[in-house]
Design goal:
- This protein is an alpha/beta fold.
- The chain folds into 2 domains: 281 residues, Aldehyde Dehydrogenase, Chain A, domain 1; 189 residues, Aldehyde Dehydrogenase, Chain A, domain 2 (3-Layer(aba) Sandwich).
- Helices cover 40% and strands 19% of the residues.
- It has 15 helices and 20 strands.
- The protein has a 7-stranded mixed sheet, sandwiched between helices. A 6-stranded mixed sheet has the order 9-8-7-10-11-19, sandwiched between helices. Strands 5-6-20 form a 3-stranded antiparallel sheet, with no helix packed on it.
- The protein binds nicotinamide-adenine-dinucleotide and 4-oxobutanoic acid.
Length: 500
């Protein structure tokens, strides 16, 4: 990680002056009058306004462009698609300062983490540039005849990619990378609260040589209008969604009309297990990013800590110590390690969940409130901050055990039996991420295999990797992103039978 740059008002003004402010369709940014504010959660002030696209009209225009570009892109040599993706990866790194600052400004993550996301997000472009020239396919002899079975991978066709605000760059590249590698054209719809990073990504892709129409980006506050228009259009062949489970459910229902391929990366409720054999330093070192990375606003965030009674006191004490040492402030300040939450609604939800837990008997061990204006740097009083929080004695019926907190709150539940810890971990409709910490390999492996989730991190707080299949089971989603599995989501298999 390079030293973080000093962010001055002039630097922010320069970026905001250059960042595109409207939808990107058929190779160009559209005109229009900006009216949709993008707010800085660190100060509560509007950064810029962007053009709020008419969902049906601009959505259809974007799909027209994607459909027109689809065949030629599918026929573009895999080597050429690979080279373009590779160039886009390089450009993301060359433009890391702009991309990172845009993310910190529009959603609040600390600048160091925003640079981390540039690396992570760009990696999907590099990984899939390498996969573009390794499309699957096969040739085998039919067992009962002198005939052959040939399988050929083909792109599914135009894709609608819908992304959330919490990882504005990587959630886009995790879809666009494999889609372009497979030969699919894309209409991206970013969250309306964080359009700037996606618009900068459009510039990256265009400058890398992605032809007009192959990637389009519709910025609109009317997400329902956009999805209902495009999902009703039979030319669209796939929807890839990252966001909350309720919205995913709606999109799955809409996608059934034209029997679309779907990929669903949905909500989580990750359990974090501290087993009897856990080394406390290792467990806490994993717990900190598992809980507080991205201000606690990650689908993978540890939502519930099930700690074995034999290590509970030591673990909780160490977690409280580390959590209370986090530096709350605006993401652009290099000393900040916990930035503001997205908006007032996000803080209100966290307050509500903490109040519910406390009413039911939980104890606030640190935090448990918003910081006062005096505890924040000048100019940040209107920002949407919440102190890093650890709750003890959290009862099983508290809402924090069931609902995604999406904020910097760690509920600790002490249990004296490993079976009970695993049963509690699995007592949720979600199954995205889980964390297991322990030094006894047999104990850890047994627990990891019994937890119902698409991903398990052992003695680690982050498992995300472009080379790994990311995704959930149960109501956390369908399909995988990243790795070879991530490319398969954008391919259809055609089977050809041949005489030998
Ligand atoms: N599994 C994953 O990989 C993953 C990654 C990041 C976030 N998430 C989840 O996303 C949620 C937080 O993100 P969010 O608040 O932006 O989620 P969200 O579901 O509210 O919104 C996600 C995206 O869907 C759009 N949207 C909302 N309603 C829509 C509709 N009816 N039709 C079409 N689009 C619609 C939004 O504008 C946004 O672009 C959390 O639940 C988090 O766990 C999951
Ligand atoms: O918010 C969920 C995505 C987090 C990640 O990809 O690491």
């Amino acid at each position: 990680m390079p030293d973080l740059p000093t962010i001055t008002d002039a630097r922010i003004a320069d970026l905001l002056d250059r960042v595109p402010r409207s939808s990107f369709v058929d190779g160009g940014f559209l005109g229009g009058t900006p009216s949709l504010p993008v707010t800085d959660p660190a100060t509560g002030r509007a950064l810029v306004e962007v053009v709020d696209a008419d969902a049906a009209a601009v959505g259809t225009k974007a799909l027209d462009a994607a459909v027109a570009a689809q065949d030629a892109w599918a026929r573009t040599l895999p080597r050429d698609r690979s080279d373009i993706l590779r160039r886009a990866y390089e450009l993301c790194h060359e433009r890391a300062d702009d991309l990172a600052l845009a993310m910190t400004l529009e959603m609040g993550k600390p600048l160091a983490e925003a640079y981390g996301e540039v690396t992570y997000g760009a990696e999907f472009l590099r990984w899939f540039s390498e996969q573009a020239v390794r499309l699957p396919g096969g040739f085998r002899q039919a067992p009962s005849a002198d005939q052959a079975i040939l399988t050929v991978a083909r792109p599914v066709g135009p894709v609608l990619a819908i992304t959330p605000w919490n990882f504005p760059l990587s959630m886009g590249t995790r879809k666009i990378g494999p889609a372009l590698a497979a030969g699919c054209a894309v209409v991206l719809k970013p969250a309306s609260s964080t359009p700037l990073t996606s618009l900068l990504l459009m510039q990256v892709l265009a400058d890398a040589g992605v032809p007009a129409g192959v990637v389009n980006c519709v910025v609109t506050s009317d997400s329902k209008g956009l999805s209902s228009t495009l999902l009703a259009d039979p030319r669209l062949r796939k929807v890839s969604f990252t966001g909350s489970t309720p919205v995913g459910r709606t999109l799955l229902a809409q996608a059934s009309e034209h029997v679309l391929r779907t990929s669903m990366e949905l909500g989580g409720n990750a359990p974090f297990l501290v087993l009897p054999s856990a080394d406390i330093d290792t467990a806490v070192a994993a717990a900190m990013p598992a809980k507080f990375r991205n201000n606690g606003e990650a689908c993978t965030a540890a939502n519930r800590f099930y700690v074995h009674a034999s290590v509970a006191e030591q673990f909780t004490k160490a977690l409280v110590e580390k959590a209370s040492a986090l530096q709350v402030g605006p993401g652009i300040d290099p000393s900040t390690t916990l930035g503001p939450l997205l908006d007032e609604g996000a803080v209100a939800k966290v307050e509500e969940l903490v109040a519910d837990a406390v009413e039911r008997g939980a104890r606030v061990l640190t935090g448990g409130r918003r910081p006062s204006a005096e505890e924040l740097p000048d100019g940040c009083a209107e920002g949407t901050y919440y102190l890093p929080t650890v709750l003890g004695d959290v009862p099983a019926d508290a809402r924090v055990n069931r609902e995604e907190i999406f904020g910097p709150v760690a509920p600790v539940i002490v249990l004296d039996d490993v079976d009970a810890m695993i049963a509690a971990a699995n007592d949720t409709e979600f199954g995205l991420m889980s964390y297991v910490t322990g030094a006894d390999l047999a104990e850890v492996t047994a627990a990891a295999q019994r937890i119902e989730s698409g991903m398990v991190a052992v003695n680690l707080g982050v498992a995300s990797d472009a080379a790994a299949p990311f995704g959930g089971i149960k109501e956390s989603g369908l399909g995988r992103e990243g790795a070879a599995e991530g490319l398969d989501e954008y391919l259809e298999t055609t089977y050809v039978r041949l005489p030998l």
